[in-house]
Amino acid sequence: MTGFLEQVAAYLHRAYGDDLERFCIVFPNIRAGLFFKKYLARLSDKPVWAPTFRSLEALMEEITGLTQADNLSLIFDLFNAFKQHKQTNESFDDFYFWGEMLLEDFDDVDKQMVNACDLFRNVSDLKEIDLIFDYLTPEQKKIIMLFWKDFNGGENVTLKTDFSTVLQMLYPVYETFKKELQSKSLGYGGMIQREAARLLSEGKDDCLTCEKYVFIGFNALTKCETIFFKSLQKQGKALFFWDYDDYYVSNLWHEAGTFMRENISIFPSEWKFDVKNLENTSKHIEIISVPSETGQAKLAGQIIEKIYANDDKQSENKDLSRTAIVLPDEHLLLPVLSSLPENARDINITMGYPFVASPANSLFERLAALQKHIRKYADGMRFYHNDVCLILYHPYIQNIIPEEANAVIKRIIERNRIYVSTAEFPDHKLLKLIFVQKSNARDFSEYLLSIVLEIATSNFKPETSNFKPQTSNLKPQTPNLETEYLYTFYTALQRTRDILIMNNIDMDVQIFCRLLRKNFASLKIPFSGEPLKGLQLMGMLETRALDFDNVIILSMNEGVFPKSATKQSFIPYNLRKGFGLTTSERRDAINAYNFYRLIQRATDARLIYNSAATDRNTGEMSRFISQMIYEPAFNVKQRNISFRINIDRKIPVIKERNDETRRILNMYLAETGDIKWLSPSAINSYLDCRLRFYFRYIEGLKEMEEVADEIDMSVFGKLLHKTMEIIYLPFIETEMTAETFTKIQKDKQSIKNALYRAFAEDYFHVEKVTDSDITGRNIIIREVLLKYIMRILEVDKNAAPFTILNLEKRLEVKFPLKTVNLNLSGFIDRLDLAQNTLRIIDYKTGNALRNFSSVADLFDRNKAGNHAVFQILAYACMMRLAPNFSTFSARGISGGVYVMKDLFEENFDPRIKISYKQPIDNYFDIADEFERELNMLLSELFLSDTPFTQTENLKKCQNCPYADICHR
After folding, report:
1. Considering just the CA atoms, what is the radius of gyration of the chain in Å?
2. Would you say 882 and 911 are in contact if contact means Cβ atoms under 8 Å apart?
3. What integer best gives the mean pLDDT of the chain?
4. What CATH number has the domain spanning 4-66+194-266?
5. Distance CA 350, CA 530 (A)
6. CB of 466 within 8 A of CB of 475?
7. How confident is the model at residue 380 (pLDDT cuts 50, 70, 90)?
8. What is the mean pLDDT of residues 147-165?
9. β partners of residue 919
10. Residue 562, preceding bond cis, omega within 30 degrees?
């Protein structure tokens, strides 16, 4: 089907021949002009002068001599105007949000030619409305009167007073702001439109150098644009071409034709085209629901692949310039690009990619977090480990210094460095730029600029890089995705810094970061390509005046297209409606026109929406889709795409034994060579779950090491064990009496020193720790540890006298299994001798039980398991088998578990008990039964072909590090 622009080009060529150089062709966007040039060039068989092409905004700038200023500069000027009329200590950062809203209001006021003095007037007497607003229609007056009647009748006096004060202040701010911009020959969109409309209506048309001005493809005109058009129409210099369909224009109820009906009436079209395309019965319209965001992108790629396959031309000559993928949600741009078929080589992207979704923005956020969490120490600045690691993990840094970055990360984890000093970084220029402190906005902006420039010049070699050392010329000549990210970041930073310097404004770094975030939220990264060739990826606004045979629109969800968010404004809805300002109804009508116009000439339209409800999406189809389904004019097909997910079927995970498994297990039975030692903890693991043992001790899957910001239970236990070892170390082979413990308890400084040494060795991994190193929640941990330590000393004092034999000593023995011996080893927290009995003492900081029902229950896999008791008995078994056991001349072996949560019980007794009865004072009383059960268990593990299977007790899976592998 011949498109709208092609028809307009053909008509103008027929009517005016090759003399169009005297004409100015005006479009709602620049892209439409590119396509129009293409169609016009086809119609002439000889070189001719082309007409002038302008967007309406550019034409109005030429007429007024005003230049459109960027938003950030405008808000700075607005802030200065605001401060002139309101004494306030409000910072620019706090004003920014209000400034954006106020700028939009002023822009709308000017575009609709509203009398700002009347709009911002506080009307206390309703009779004044007829007198003051005599230029408004009775309906507009009624709406305004209704607002002031409700407002003046309200009970909240404070709220009314605040609103009246703000409203009355807006007009002088508006006037001051515009005068300041006028003095600089700058303006915002509405201001420029209003000035252009005024100049033309007053007959000041010296700058209109063209014979005719041809307006093509417009829809919703502002009041300024209407006056502008009327002025040119009155002079006979205007031609109008409207793009519409009779279906929504002739139906007065249809919102898509709201503005077009008025346009056609006031500005008759130069020539009427075929306006009955929407109801074409051969048109294929399909509505497809997909239950995911990326699923839509994948489906779009499949559709494009089918379009290629159905093309009769040779693959190398295929052209998708008549095919468009429209993305109301710009975040789907990269998923769509990655989903397109490989043969779709020519792709033109007309929309910008959100800067906040780029790696350059993530780098900014990590650098901002780094500055926020810096701490001052006596030896200089220190940086929070998480911020350091996130920066060093960033792809930009990894591309430049992967070895240095990973070495620092490894050192931080190994030494549990919560705060990292500058001395711990390698001598590299980029690291020196990053790891410094900046205290104000200007220094921080220079800091960011230097880092971006260094990354750009390091990532891209000088001979191929588009980034130059000169800060004034950083624009890439042949941009790619990465250079565009960095270039956009750099230019936005540079512009913000220049505005700060120009306005002599400085602020705190964190406030400046908030300002940058607000600025970055509106930034788009532009893409370049051949606009007249290949598949078109577009935003909805870029489709104006363009026609495509194949249209694929993604994210056709309510709230996405059309957007549901209400525009924030200082001007209440009734005042907006009464004075003819933009309301939500106007925006909905514009969206409706853009949608129906896009598909009116398409032969194939696929409307895809996400049916899954998420935080960003309700899963509801757009109202435009619902409308098409129920309108009899359209023959719409619907299709639902769903994912097949089976969650009920649980596939057991079983690892059969093979030669490699047996080889590893045999290392635990070896006498020489590669020997492995089995610990009581490993046996407990096998009892809990055979498969857990397999993952940990056969496959060697360990949990990832991380820096512990705060002391968790495992580290807490290490600190307690280490401190008790340090305290008792001088007393090995010494009889500990009550008097000995009294002396230890009184020397609190030595106890604290022992604890700090434990912190240094087992937590911070440094030589020395002071009070300043222990901060936050760790201060509480330190005090709790001291209380536990003092209580252990008290419990031991009550048990004196006894002799400490060794501390944290590794014990290695051979356990007999039929014809072989098994290598067993472990670390006993403390071994002492009391009343001719060896005591095995184990400290437990977590949940642990000192009671057990029977020896058999300790080996019952279906029960919860008692790790503490099992471990004590396993150590007792190992002590009995130890070669030097006879040297202790002990009559027996006993065990005690110091469970911290039970430690403060009255008459605390650490001994283990069976069924809450008498304590087990001698392991030998149950040794035969325990060692028989242990032999059976270990024989199964090492001498059988029993596969490694999952536990049936799901409670044991709750804290298992391998639960995800088992899908438990």
Report:
1. 39
2. no
3. 87
4. 3.40.50.300
5. 10
6. yes
7. confident
8. 68
9. 913
10. yes
Maximum Cα interatomic distance, the chain, rounded to a whole number of Å:
122
With tokens 């002038």, the residue in question is: 52
Classify the C-alpha dihedral 82-88-91-94 as positive or negative.
negative
- Give the highest mean pLDDT range of 9-23, 501-515, 516-530: 9-23
d(CA 479, CA 481): 7
Cα(724)–Cα(469) distance, integer angstroms:
60
Strands 353-354 and 375-377: unpaired
Closest CA to 544 of 239, 220, 303, 279: 220
Q: Look up residue 932 and give its two tokens.
A: 């028989």
Judge whether 466 and 479 are in contact, CB under 8 Å. Answer: yes
State pLDDT tens for residues 662-677: 999 999 999 888 899 9
Q: What is the homologous superfamily of the domain 284-352+528-640 according to CATH?
A: P-loop containing nucleotide triphosphate hydrolases (3.40.50.300)
CA atoms of 523 and 925, how far apart (whole Å)? 78
- The token pair that represents 259 in the structure block: 């503005």
Helix 138-152 with 157-183: angle, nearest 10 deg: 130
* Prediction pTM value: 0.71
How far is it, in rounded angstroms, from Cα 280 to Cα 481? 41
Pairing of strands 604-610, 284-290: parallel
The DSSP symbol for 567 reads P
Q: What's the one-letter identity of residue 385?
A: H
Which DSSP string do the residues of 358-420 spell out, in sequence order? SHHHHHHHHHHHHHHT-EEETTEEEEEHHHHHHHHHSHHHHHH-HHHHHHHHHHHHHTT-SEE
What is the spatial distance between Cα 359 and Cα 7, in angstroms, rounded to a whole number?
44
Q: What is the mean pLDDT of residues 637-660?
A: 81
Residue 317 pLDDT exceeds 50: no
Please tell me the number of Cα atoms within 13 Å of 209 on its side-chain side: 7
Contact 558, 613 (CB under 8 A): no
Long-range contacts of 776-779 (CB under 8 A, 24+ apart): 776/710, 777/710, 777/711, 778/710, 778/711
Q: What is the pLDDT of residue 334?
A: 87
pLDDT in tens, 868-897: 999 999 999 999 999 888 888 788 999 999
Task: Note whether 287 and 625 are within 8 A (CB).
Answer: yes
Which tokens in the block code for residue 840? 């095995």
Using alpha carbons only, what angle is made at residue 31 by residues 560 and 594, rounded to the nearest 5 degrees? 35
Ranges 593-597, 696-700, 732-736, 845-849: which has the least confidence = 845-849
Three-point CA angle 679, 685, 690, nearest 5°: 120
Name which of 152-161, 345-354, 408-417, 484-493 the model is least confident about.
152-161
DSSP state for residue 41 in the 8-state scheme: H
Residue 464 has pLDDT above 60, yes or no: no
Alpha-carbon span 185 to 204, nearest angstrom: 18
Q: Which CATH architecture has domain 665-966?
A: Alpha-Beta Complex (3.90)
